[in-house]
Design goal:
The chain is an alpha/beta fold and about 575 residues long. The protein has 20 helices and 13 strands. Among the domains are: about 90 residues, Arginyl tRNA synthetase N-terminal domain (Gyrase A, domain 2); about 90 residues, no CATH class; about 110 residues, Orthogonal Bundle (Isoleucyl-tRNA Synthetase, Domain 1). The chain binds arginine. Arginine (ARG) binds next to helix 11.
Amino acid sequence: MSADLAQDLEQRIVAAVHAAYGIEITAKEAVIRPAQPGRPGDYQCNAAMPLAKRLGRPSPEVGAAIADRLDLTGLAGRPEVAGPGFLNIVFDAGYLGDHVAALAADEHLGVPRTEPRRVVVDYSSPNMAKEMHVGHLRSTIIGDALVRMLEAVGHEVVRQNHLGDWGTPFGMLVEHLVDEGWTGGGGHTVADLTAFYADARHKFDTDDAFADRSRKRVVALQAGDPTTLALWEELLDESKRHIEAVYELLDVRLTPDDYRGESSYNPRLDEVVADLQQRGLAVDSDGALCVFPPGFAGRDDEPLPLIIRKSGGGYGYDTTDLATLRYRTQELKADDIFYVVGAPQAMHFAMVFAAGREAGWVSDDSRIEHVPFGSVLGSDGRMLRTRAGATVKLTDLLTAAVDRAAAIVAERGQMDPQERAAVARAVGIGAVKYADLSSQREKDYTFDLDRMLAMEGNTAVYLQYAHARIRSMLHKADQTPDQTPASGTPVILDEPAERALALKLAQYPAAVTAAIEAVEPHRLCGYLYELAVLFSTFYQHCPVLTAPTAELRQSRLALSEHTARVLERALGLLGIEAPDRM
Ligand code: ARG
């Protein structure tokens, strides 16, 4: 038996097609899909339509021919052929029950291990000396979930926090530090990075002498002047304290070991440019050195460049990202790379990847992808800002969520203050993360704490309560969470509600796989919500602790425990905690 219900069916369909027409189709061509809610059957086979085209026969006829040759013994009853040749398949309760019992006994709950690959995930990547903004919040949350999902199926993940810690703004920032009396020896703090940056910017725009000093300072920084470097480093240290406070609050798996800022590529830029020149890809254009990756044209059909060396001799974001791609493929030996960065940078990455492929740095079977996401909007439907129009600080946003969650938690459970604080944090942070992950990645969404913390609907707290309620019931049944009473417990599926729950549990592996494949965590969120809703129907209709027979009680406890474990595990994949008590 395979982990995925669809796989068993696929094999049988492949065999039936062979028996009917003497041709070999692939498992994919069996086109097995879970039935849409409200449609008859558990799964549908949609193989007949494409096959009909291929064979030049009417599709209902092909559907009927497959059904005639289909042997589903031990799996399902005789399929019903509908419409243009769909096969509606209803699993035998015995098969489904055994399948679910086997998944429960598996330590990964059926999620298959994949061929391990080394995967670089570029995420968070805020700009130093500026407060992180909501765009970086999205990158951090989505990137962290992606990392956890990839690791869970056995990939080796290399996290890369591509900090914006280099370039012309640092001349101005360092010069501002000097004016503020910093020496580079440590001991200084910046309470408000946003204000600090704004002050420097204001001076730069209004004070010519300062602007002049700033430009000289950039040159000194790039030349490695020790005092300048010391000041720059002191500023970075201070910025890192700010972002680490956010990471800590968010509970994301990013540590200083994962920092590889733009500055770290500085020593390699000459070499990268030389490499591109040697390969004949670098073209002189108005004094600047450019690469024109194929397939990118501007409005007048003019080819678009990546500027690899400015006319003044300096390097910018393009060159750094080329060096980064080269480093990740050649030195980190990444098989795949995901860049979790906002949608506005789509063109930049498409061009960098195309240039990297042209330069031969990327092997053909590598997935090198930009994982874009939409904006976070305020209640006015515009980009999220404070009332004064400034960017919203992440710590303020997250603290507000935890405070709001604390009020909800206080109303409900009876817990000591310490546990209550931990639960409030799990709920508040979980709400923010889940609201982000459950929206379609490329769409904008509105930051609305009321909706994020709603007890009903597709929210983290709804799932967390569902999980805690099951745990408390299991506790009453004298079960401990880590035991797996489910393994070996026969699962009995007589009631429609328990059958529907079991079918959903069996689809957990496919939900994880789909979320990873498309880098779409919202698929997993949608799955979890459906699971929790089905559990609640099951719980209403099927008494567990007071089940009519001992066998049924065991079976229902096993289904409940399995549900709790899927909820906890999957929320964990999204970076969200599932407290046992709430
Ligand atoms: N620091 C950049 C920004 O805030 C994001 C960096 C993304 N990663 C990269 N390799 N360019 O826009």
